[in-house]
Write a structure and sequence with these properties.
The chain is an alpha/beta fold. The chain has 18 helices and 15 strands. It folds into two domains: about 250 residues, Glycogen Phosphorylase B (Rossmann fold); about 170 residues, Glycogen Phosphorylase B (Rossmann fold, 3-Layer(aba) Sandwich). Helix 11 packs across helix 16 and helix 16 crosses helix 17.
C-alpha cells in the first residue's frame, strides 16, 4: 500500500455484473496507490459494501420500475439509466464535494456507457475520466458507427450477414456490435453519446493490454484527443473481494478436484444472456454426447420462461453418472484457474474472454449481442485460440466442436497459442510491463488534475 495521496476518487459503475466487477477492481488498484475511494451506485444491482470496508459507498435512488429494471431489454435499461440517474448523481456529487474539505476530489471515473456523466461533471467543474470495460477493438467499431451506416453496413440486413466489413478485417457484417431492437435510432444515439462523452473526458482507462490489442490501441490514440491508459487485465492487478451479484456455488471447485487435468468443459453464458428451451436442450444433449466431463452454469433466467432445470429430460442428470455438474452460478476465476478445466464455452463477454486468456484456457464462443460478437471473432480469427458456433445451436455441431477443441490436434495448437497470450498477460502487469507503466502514468495524470471542493453549494474551489 502506497502512502495516501490526499485525493479522493469517485467511481460510478454501470449496474450490470460485467461492468461492476472491473470498476471495483479498478477502485481497489487505485486505493492501493494511495487514493481514497468513494463508490456511487444505483439501488438496482447494488454492490455489497461489506466486501469493501476500505471504500465509502453512496447509493442513489434511480427509481426504475420493475419493468424498467429488467435485463431482458438491455437497451431500454441503459436508456432509462442514462435519464433517471442524472439528477440523483448531480445531487450526490454536490454533497460529496461540499463535505470533503480536507481531501479534494480529483475526478469522477464513470463507465463509458454512462455518457450523461460528462455533462454532470462539467456542470460541477469536476474532471471526469472514463473506464471502458470492454475491449479496444470493439470500441473502435462503436466509434465507426456513422461510417458504417453511411457505407450501408448498418442497419444490418439478413442478406449481408456473411459479407466482410472491409474497413475492419476480419469482421463480417454479422459480427457488428448491435442489439436487435425496435429502437435502432435510440441505440445509435446511445453509442454516439458513449463515444462523444469519452472524447470530451479527461482520459480513458482500458481493461486491456498492449500485446493483446496493440493495433486497436494505436488507432485509438490517433483518433481520440485524450490520454489513454490500458492497464488490464484488471483482475490480475487487483486483490478485490468478490463483486458477484449472485451467490457462488463452491461445490464447483470440490467437483473439479475429482476430475482429471484439462478434461472438463466449463460452460457459462454470463449474467444477462438468455436462450430458449429448444436451444437449451441442444446444449444439454451436445454436452451429454461429447462424453467429456462438464461444469455447466445454468443461471436462473437463462432459459426463457423457465425457472431453472425443469426443461431437462427426466433422468438426464442421473444418466451422467457424475460426468456433469450443474450449478446456478460459479466462482469463475477459481474455475478457470483450476487444473481440471480444459476449455471454456462462453458468451464471449470481455471479462470472460480476458479471464480465459489469463488462465490459458481455449474457448468455444457463442456471442449473443453487442461487443461479444467482435470479441468472438478476434478469439477465433485473430488470436486463434477458440472456435465459434457460427450456425446456431445444434447438438451434433456442439459435440463435434467440443471434440475439436478438447481432443484433436487443432485444440492442442490453440492451447499452445493461448498459453503464449497468458505469458504476455502475466508479464504486462509486472514491474516494467506495459500495463504497470500505464498505471503509473494514470496515477501521475490523476495527480495533475485540479482537486475540487465546494466552499458553499455553488462555488467550486480548485
Amino acid at each position: 500500500m502506497e502512502q495516501r495521496k490526499g485525493r479522493r476518487l469517485v467511481l460510478f459503475p454501470l449496474p450490470l455484473q460485467g461492468h461492476i466487477s472491473p470498476m471495483l477492481q479498478l477502485a481497489s488498484i487505485l486505493h492501493s496507490k494511495g487514493f481514497s475511494i468513494t463508490i456511487i451506485h444505483t439501488t438496482f444491482n447494488s454492490p455489497d459494501p461489506s466486501n469493501y470496508p476500505h471504500f465509502n459507498f453512496c447509493p442513489i435512488q434511480e427509481h426504475l420500475t420493475d419493468s424498467e429494471a429488467s435485463t431482458t431489454d438491455a437497451l431500454s435499461l441503459l436508456l432509462n439509466l442514462n435519464i433517471k440517474c442524472v439528477a440523483p448523481l448531480r445531487n450526490c456529487l454536490s454533497g460529496l464535494l461540499s463535505s470533503v474539505l480536507e481531501e479534494p476530489v480529483a475526478c469522477l471515473i464513470s463507465d463509458a456507457v454512462f455518457h450523461f456523466t460528462q455533462a454532470v461533471a462539467q456542470s460541477l467543474g469536476l474532471p471526469r475520466m472514463v473506464l471502458r470495460t470492454g475491449g479496444a477493438s470493439s470500441f473502435l467499431i462503436f466509434a465507426a458507427f456513422p461510417l458504417l451506416r453511411e457505407s450501408g453496413y448498418l442497419p444490418i440486413r439478413e442478406s449481408q450477414l456473411e459479407e466482410p466489413v472491409v474497413e475492419f478485417p476480419p469482421l463480417k457484417v454479422k459480427d457488428l456490435p448491435v442489439i436487435h431492437t425496435n429502437l435502432p435510432k435510440q441505440f445509435y444515439q446511445l453509442a454516439d453519446g458513449m463515444i462523444s462523452g469519452t472524447k470530451a473526458s479527461s482520459g480513458l482507462i482500458w481493461n486491456t493490454f498492449e500485446d493483446l490489442e496493440k493495433s486497436a490501441l494505436t488507432t485509438a490514440r490517433n483518433n481520440f484527443p485524450i490520454p489513454i491508459y490500458p492497464i488490464g487485465p484488471l483482475h490480475k492487478c487487483s486483490l478485490a473481494s468478490s463483486s458477484s451479484l449472485l451467490p457462488q456455488d463452491q461445490s464447483s471447485i470440490s467437483w473439479l478436484d475429482e476430475q482429471a487435468a484439462k478434461s472438463v468443459m466449463y460452460v457459462s453464458f454470463g449474467s444477462i444472456a438468455a436462450i430458449n428451451e429448444v436451444q437449451f436442450l441442444e446444449v444439454a444433449w451436445g454436452l451429454y454426447n461429447s462424453k467429456q466431463p462438464f461444469l455447466w452454469v445454468v443461471r436462473p433466467g437463462l432459459v426463457q420462461g423457465k425457472e431453472w432445470l425443469e426443461s431437462l429430460p427426466d433422468g438426464f442428470a442421473e444418466d451422467l453418472n457424475g460426468r456433469g455438474h450443474i450449478v446456478k452460478w460459479a466462482p469463475q476465476l477459481e474455475v478457470l484457474a483450476h487444473p481440471a478445466v480444459g476449455a471454456f464455452w462462453t458468451h464471449s463477454g470481455w471479462n470472460s474472454t480476458l479471464e480465459s486468456i489469463c488462465e490459458g484456457v481455449p474457448m468455444i464462443c457463442m456471442p449473443c449481442f453487442t461487443d461479444q460478437r467482435v470479441n468472438a471473432r478476434y478469439v477465433c480469427d485473430v488470436w486463434r485460440v477458440g472456435l465459434q458456433l457460427e450456425n446456431g445451436l445444434e447438438r451434433g455441431q456442439i459435440e463435434r466442436t467440443i471434440k475439436r477443441l478438447m481432443v484433436e490436434r487443432e485444440g492442442k495448437d490453440m492451447r499452445n497459442r493461448i498459453l503464449l497470450l497468458k505469458e504476455m498477460a502475466n508479464f504486462c502487469v509486472r514491474e516494467g510491463g506495459s500495463s504497470c507503466q500505464s498505471l503509473d502514468n494514470l496515477v501521475g495524470h490523476i495527480m495533475s488534475l485540479p482537486g475540487v471542493v465546494f466552499r458553499c453549494q455553488e462555488t467550486p474551489v480548485y
